Amino acid sequence: xxxxEYEAKNLLGAAGIKVPNGIVVVASRNLSTISLxxxxxxxxxxxxxxxxxxxxxxxxxxxxxRVVNEIFELxxxxxxxxxxxxxxxxxxxxxxxLSLVINREQGTIELVAHREGGVEVESHQTxxxxxxxxDDDNCEGVGDSLADYLELPEKSFVLQTMVEELYSCFxxxxxxxxxxxxxxxxxxxxLVAGDCKMLLxxxxxxxxxxxxxxxxxxxxxxxxxxxxxxxxxxxNGAGLAMATVDAVKDAGLTPANFLDIGGGATTxxxxxxxxxxxxxxxxxxxxxxxxxxxxxxxxxAQAIIEAKxxxxxxxxxxxxxxxxxxxxAAELLAAEQLTLYATLEGCLEAMKS
Length: 353
Prior knowledge:
Elements lengths: L4 H11 L6 E4 L12 E5 L6 H4 L2 E4 L2 H13 L10 E5 L3 E12 L4 E7 L15 E5 L4 H11 L6 H17 L2 E12 L4 E3 L2 E5 L21 E3 L6 E5 L2 H13 L6 E3 L7 H11 L7 E8 L4 H14 L5 E8 L2 H10 L8 H9 L1
Parallel strand pairs: 12-14, 14-15
Antiparallel strand pairs: 1-4, 2-3, 2-4, 5-6, 5-8, 6-7, 8-9, 8-10, 11-13
Helix pairs in contact: 1-5, 4-5, 7-8, 8-9
């Protein structure tokens, strides 16, 4: 589950991390009480908002309503915001990068940092980043080393506390990614989370009955397996869904998710499934593996076609529909230049060719 910025910052703030003063507004909100200058941020669950025009600085009341209306009307990567985050304008002295991630090879939580934050952080060399394993016992030491790396010796105690709070926030909320970019050193010497990206583990929902985020899954059968995965899967029935994931892994590919859409494959459910899959940054193919029993394959095919029309930039689709009215499904898909494969193995072979 990918949180919106304000949702992530609410969790950061509750953990003790300093975030900018701000409010969340919807389209109908009275803006007369907004203090200016301020930063207007579109609340959509994708990156690149600034480059797309979804983050704007407003300096006076003459600009306020126009900019707010423009951001609400601005669609970014298929998303139009339901809300805006309006924050105080920080006076920035320096920007850093800070994140907590899961190191799946070592089965640990890892803190990653860089002396330069902002939109170009990906351009830095891998060996330039500060990396340390985090656990219950070493947060203080890691915070001290981090202060040295960031060349902020006077912030050693602050960073020790921040690392402890970040670790607690990460573990308590069953996060799989917590990224602060930029971590802002303000002109008056404060370290503030300027922006925050946070992913939560869908499989941990049973531990968090109070979770009520905008990206709340439509059902509990979507499980993120590997955020860096290259192949997404959609199937009906838990057994078939698990078999599909296993087959992808056995083929030497990296499954991104497990998704059992259950006994129905409505257009709305397929669109929502595709939309969630597009949030994985490295997925280049989607396998749809449906057995038509009570559900009709031609109904599923129609839902896939309509979903693809709504989301034309989807990764390549490899579709296997077997059972009830599969021939009719093949004809529908062929008319849209979509191939129907007879077996899951056929999907995988075509994907690897």
